[in-house]
Amino acid sequence: MSQHSPANMTPAELEAYLREKIPLSRAMEVRVVESSPLRLVLEAPLAANINHVGSAFGGSLHALPTLACYSTLWTIMREAGTDGHVVVKRSEASYRRPVRGRLRAVCIRPAQPVIARFLEDLRRNKKARMELDAIVEGEAEKPAVEFHGTFVAIV
Known about the structure:
Number of strands: 6
Order of helices and strands: HHEEHEEHEE
Structural class: alpha+beta
Helix content: 25-40%
Oligomer: single chain
CATH architecture: Roll
Radius of gyration: 15 Å
CATH class: Alpha Beta
Low-confidence stretches: 1-6
Number of helices: 4
Shape: globular
Number of domains: 1
Largest sheet: 6 strands, antiparallel
Mean pLDDT: 93
């Protein structure tokens, strides 16, 4: 990693972190294409995530939004100067339509009051949880997958 502080980690640095700490992201060829105060976007090529019928494998369609939500919460913690671990406690995905091209997961960051409450809980209890949603984009601006997860942070 470069000399950047965690609060201004670039998408390339976040991608390097994911590839180092979560090897599945390497196998899936995950790329961080956006990490902003509004949202986090991950992409992966179909070729590395294809199934036997030529569309994206269901496990990849669950893993990519899981990684997007995980990365969002991890980034929120780093921006607050908090070092800790993030784990998924519960997740579910609704598969609406197949993905036959690039996989693209989008996690919209929670509202600032939700983030502030999470960080206060984390400071006070050394543990906090956050509900996060992500979609895997499909064609015609309709979600291919809708993901919901409960994530826990521990310091």
